[in-house]
Design a protein that fits this description.
The chain is built from 24 helices and six strands. By secondary structure, the chain is mostly helical. The strands form two sheets. Strands 1-2-3-4 form a four-stranded mixed beta sheet. The protein has a two-stranded antiparallel ribbon with strand order 5-6. Helix 8 crosses helix 9 and helix 10 packs across helix 17. The longest helix has 34 residues.
């Protein structure tokens, strides 16, 4: 009796726990309030992630380069030149060791938040996210010219995806939570909740909807508050005097936006060239980061401003007036260091580096503007405009960068200039190049992603999920009478013709066979009725590809073969069913985008 009672008590407790868990999942899935609550948890986690990674990065800088913990590496004076040269090389060696350790364990490429939301419905491996964060910390901590924003967003989005997967959220809700993680990370990193929110809308979620507004903004605000509580003012970007903005100042701002767009394209091409050179060379992959570290170390001997993301260097150049030659040298060295760091295998992003280089371009641009105009813009203003314009070219998100300028300056007139330059930069890059830095790297890998807009659903809507497997097949050796006996008029519209090895030969339309004169006894078999000999579908094709083939062949239905070599018939698919399912999914995505599904 005691044993039976214990078993019953244990089962009752398990059922109770299971019921509570199901209620929590139902609360998160079926309630907008539940989704906002999840976003709040993600915002808090993102603030902790950003603060912890930033503290660890500064601790590494202090330990390795011997600078105070509260100092920025790129603006510090480092007397020991051997440290400047050897530290990036040591970081490259550690990255090579990580590559060797992960080579046989991680066979698939690591998915970042943009790719996850575009192709995989928001599913990100938390293990992969931790790996990216560790690699990013090693790269940044040892002085490679990369920022921590990639690690911030990856780990925060990975935690969000894990939470959504545990709650078994729907595809659109999971994508939204990933956006909340990225929003919190960027908001905390720049003390700018609006910037983080629009970063999520423009770059991670791929669209704006009223249903997504509350969760994303809640995550961004809470992440900012948590980061400010834990790290103080460590993430503030201070801008000096702005001055007055006149209407004619929009022209130089627009020209600066176009110039930043072309500069961004050059930088992206430089990164791609470095990666291609390293990939096509005979250099062992584990050795590439160390060789890249040598280049970064040599550049750091010229100026430490090329090291790390460039927070200190940005503040230094905003406060100090330098000659155009010095600014140009720093810009070129930073661009080369960033391209070499990422191209050689260091892990990180170009978000803050793009802000730093954009500020340099803006201050360089101020010299000819000051010479040509009597009432020219202040160099600080053009630096802010250049920051946003180059960031739009490399990262994307014109509204994101516009709100960043607004939140770091608190000045609405300069925000209008930034918006004009950001739109110009975005249009120039989109029309002449077509990609931001993130989507350009996807393009180099063979992906067709241009944004985080969800195209994964169309890849999942494949022919093998749409086709009918109960197909009507006929052997090519049948006579007309045998065929007519096997397929009476009205039994089916078409029959798939196969040979003795069950390989596809074509389609026969049954009414055409019965249209032959019934007393026609000529021995021609059914071969003369064969249509669509080389037009087939394959199971892995998606609905869009299938619709294109239907349009090309002008056929109402096609056979599905296993592959183009064996050509064994596995099913049949009609154009009407394909278009209907495709239209249903399109309508569902439209309703999700405007929040009609909840």
């Amino acid at each position: 009796m005691p044993i039976r009672f214990a078993i019953k008590s244990t089962l009752a407790h398990a059922i109770q726990v299971r019921t509570k868990l199901l209620r929590k999942k139902a609360f998160a899935r079926g309630s907008e309030i539940g989704l906002i609550f999840c976003a709040a948890l993600i915002g808090v986690a993102a603030g902790v992630v950003v603060s912890a990674m930033s503290w660890l990065s500064k601790a590494l800088h202090s330990l390795i380069f011997g600078i105070p913990h509260n100092s920025w590496l790129s603006s510090s004076i480092i007397e020991e030149k051997l440290l400047l040269l050897c530290s990036p090389v040591l970081g490259g060696c550690l990255m090579g060791c990580l590559y060797l350790a992960l080579r046989n364990r991680r066979s698939r490429p690591i998915v970042d938040p943009i790719e996850a939301n575009a192709l995989y419905g928001g599913r990100i491996s938390l293990t992969d996210s931790i790996i990216v964060a560790v690699q990013n910390l090693v790269s940044n901590g040892f002085g490679a010219s990369v920022g921590l924003e990639a690690g911030y967003t990856q780990l925060s989005s990975g935690l969000a995806s894990k939470l959504g997967a545990k709650l078994n959220l729907r595809r659109e809700d999971l994508r939204l939570l990933v956006g909340c993680g990225a929003a919190g990370a960027i908001a905390a990193a720049f003390n700018a909740p609006l910037t983080g929110a629009f970063y999520a809308f423009e770059l991670i979620i791929g669209t704006y909807s009223s249903i997504a507004l509350a969760p994303v903004v809640v995550a961004a605000i809470l992440a900012t508050l948590v980061a400010r509580t834990l790290s103080g003012d460590a993430f503030l970007i201070e801008i000096g005097d702005i001055g007055l903005i006149a209407p004619w100042h929009f022209l130089p701002a627009i020209l600066l936006g176009a110039f930043c767009a072309m500069s961004g394209i050059v930088i992206m091409k430089g990164v791609a060239f470095t990666e291609k050179f390293a990939r096509e060379s005979s250099i062992y992959p584990a050795l590439r980061p160390a060789l890249g570290g040598i280049v970064v170390g040599l550049l750091a001997l010229v100026t430490p401003q090329v090291l790390s993301a460039g927070h200190g260097a940005l503040h230094l150049n905003l406060e100090v007036q330098s000659s155009i030659g010095i600014l140009a040298i720093i810009l070129v060295l930073k661009a080369v260091a960033s391209a070499v760091s990422i191209g050689s295998g260091f892990r990180g992003g170009l978000f803050f580096a793009s802000l730093f280089m954009g500020a340099l371009i803006g201050k360089i641009f101020a010299f000819p503007v000051d010479f040509l105009l009597d009432d020219a813009l202040a160099p600080t203003v053009l630096a802010v405009v250049g920051m946003s314009a180059l960031a739009v070219a490399l990262i994307g998100g014109p509204l994101t960068m516009t709100f960043l300028a607004l939140e770091i300056t608190g000045d609405f007139p300069i925000t209008a200039l930034v918006l004009a330059a950001a739109i110009t930069s975005s249009v120039v890059v989109r029309t002449t190049f077509g990609y931001s830095f993130a989507t350009w790297r996807f393009h180099l890998r063979g992906e067709s992603i241009r944004s985080a807009h969800d195209i994964g659903w169309i890849r999942n809507l494949t022919v093998d999920k749409l086709m009918r497997s109960d197909v009507k097949k006929a052997n090519v050796n049948l006579s007309l009478e045998e065929f007519r006996h096997q397929f009476p008029l009205g039994s089916t519209q078409r029959a798939i013709l196969v040979d003795d090895d069950d390989r596809y030969l074509g389609i026969i339309f049954v009414p055409e066979v019965y249209a032959e004169e019934s007393d026609n006894t000529q021995d021609g078999g059914i071969g003369r009725f064969i249509r669509l000999r080389n037009d087939t579908l394959q199971p892995q094709m998606n609905a869009r590809q299938a619709a294109a083939i239907f349009d090309k062949t002008r056929s109402e239905a096609l056979a599905v073969v296993n592959n183009l070599i064996e050509r064994r018939v596995v099913g049949q698919l009609s154009e009407a069913h394909t278009l209907r399912r495709y239209s249903e999914e399109l309508d569902r995505r439209r309703r999700e985008a405007v929040g009609e599904t909840l």
